[in-house]
Amino acid sequence: MIRYIHLEHEFVENFPDCLQRGVIYISMQYATASHLCCCGCGAEVVTPFSPTDWKMTFDGESISLWPSIGNWNLKCRSHYILRDNRACESAPWTLEQIEAERRRDRSAKASYSKPIGLDSSTLPLPLPPLPSSEIRERKGILHSFFGWWNR
Ligand SMILES: [Zn+2]
């Protein structure tokens, strides 16, 4: 059950220690949003923005997140979509859906590699630098690809 249907959004640099219910905090610096579960259970739900996680849209008045927020790792197992600062309840997850989602997430993350040279200084936890041999290898792959493309 969703108890907090209407959310206020707040753009912040750092998340406050104590989140308020019914508020979604958005940190562009960390490309992450955080709110307390809309069912009222009080669990903190953190939604990072990335090509394989959530996408946030802001139309100047309200924010939306996509895809839906499925708290299948929480006790409440709530599942909702945040659209235009409103939480719309979605069907509860079945065990099969949870398994499928776990698999999709794993394979999306495994097949996605960050472009070389992306500024990682804004990430909350810096990724360990690649060994230089691996970077050389990756650049080599790109070079041979573009070399082939330009032929
Ligand atoms: Zn909850």
Write a structural description.
This protein has about 150 residues and is of the alpha+beta class. The chain has a domain at about 10-100. Helices cover about 25% and strands about 25% of the residues. It has helices at about 95-110, 130-150, and strands at about 10, 25, 30-35, 45-50, 55-60, 65, 70, 80-85, 85-90. The protein has a four-stranded mixed sheet, with no helix packed on it. Strands 7-8-9 form a three-stranded antiparallel sheet, with no helix packed on it. It has a two-stranded antiparallel sheet with strand order 5-6. A hairpin with a 4-residue loop joins β2 and β3 (about 30-35). The longest helix has 19 residues, at about 130-150. The chain is globular. The model is unreliable at about 120-125 (pLDDT under 50). The chain binds zinc ion. Zinc ion (ZN) binds next to loops.
Short description:
With 151 residues, the chain is an alpha+beta fold. It is built from 2 helices and 9 strands, in the order βββββββββαα. The protein has a domain at 8-99.
Task: Present the secondary structure layout.
Layout: E1 8-11, E2 23-27, E3 32-36, E4 44-48, E5 55-58, E6 63-66, E7 69-70, E8 79-83, E9 86-89, H1 95-111, H2 132-150
Parallel strand pairs: 1-2
Antiparallel strand pairs: 2-3, 3-4, 5-6, 7-8, 8-9
The structure holds zinc ion.
